[in-house]
Specification:
By secondary structure, the protein is an alpha/beta fold. It is built from 11 helices and 8 strands.
Length: 265
């Protein structure tokens, strides 16, 4: 199913029903099946789950721009189109920054955020700038899929899923297309100017989830505490997991999300 928006089209799956709306958004460079192990649990708990691809990713249409603001607009438009909101948004890596932006700009669309391994702020260190430059260069040619999936598989630290090969095949297919490479490249390197200001403007329940072995962060446990404080919310740390704790330990993370959503209904 595809929802039309003003700026692009987001492809999504919808469990239907009349329960509280939960919109799930994967990280940059990933597709909506990232949440494959949790959807049934949330739906069984009574939630209506909409699982969407980011702009230009997976089956979503390419976008003109891939800034945090433009992705936030697409999220808001999707929720408005479904017309069953406000929604609790579950988002990974890049996507929580866009969810925060959407919640600040269109508060009627979002009433809770679950931020998994969130990159809310730009890494302005020399290492961060070099990483962004490398992404812009390396994700341009036909080799991009192989390079990206090699990085991607290394972000599962304790319990890689048994179907990881099938999932990485989807990512290679996406990056085989110039439009897919552009979407991933631009989304991964999108600036975060304005995110801090919008964090200060939102007042809604938040749950932050980190893996204790997430090498995207120098100290993921400390970052989990800091992020929860910044978002004025709760947090959980999944022992031994990497950047995708909800894929490595889906039962524990899904249970925590269900509990959080039930308490904040």
């Amino acid at each position: 199913m595809t929802a039309p928006t003003d700026r692009n089209h987001l492809a999504f799956d919808d469990t239907g029903g009349s329960g509280r709306l939960v919109v799930m958004l994967p990280g940059a460079g990933d597709v909506r099946s990232e949440y494959r192990f949790m959807i049934d649990t949330l739906a069984a708990a009574g939630f209506r789950v909409v699982n969407a691809d980011l702009p230009g990713h997976g089956e979503s249409a390419p976008a003109e721009r891939y800034t945090v603001a433009d992705t936030a607009a697409a999220i808001g438009d999707l929720i408005a189109t479904i017309d069953a909101g406000p929604a609790a948004v579950v988002a990974t890596s890049f996507a929580p920054a866009a969810a925060v932006w959407a919640a600040a700009e269109r508060p009627e669309t979002i009433d809770a955020i679950v931020a998994i391994s969130p990159h809310l702020h730009e890494d302005t260190s020399v290492k961060g700038r070099l990483s962004s430059a490398s992404i812009r260069m390396l994700l341009r040619g036909p080799w991009a899929g192989s390079l990206w999936t090699k990085l991607y598989t290394g972000w599962y630290k304790k319990s890689p899923p048994s179907d990881l090969d099938a999932e990485t095949a989807k990512l290679r297919d996406m990056l085989a297309q110039p439009s897919g490479r552009r979407a991933v490249r631009k989304t991964l390197t999108a600036g975060r100017d304005g995110v801090t200001e919008r964090i200060e403007r939102i007042e809604l329940p938040t749950l932050t989830v980190f893996g204790s072995a997430d090498d995207h962060f120098t100290d993921p446990v400390a970052t989990a505490n800091e992020t929860a404080t910044e978002l004025s919310g709760e947090h959980m740390v999944v022992d031994g997991a990497g950047h995708y704790p909800h894929v490595e330990q889906p039962e524990a993370v899904a249970s925590a999300i269900v509990s959080f959503l039930q308490r904040t209904a």
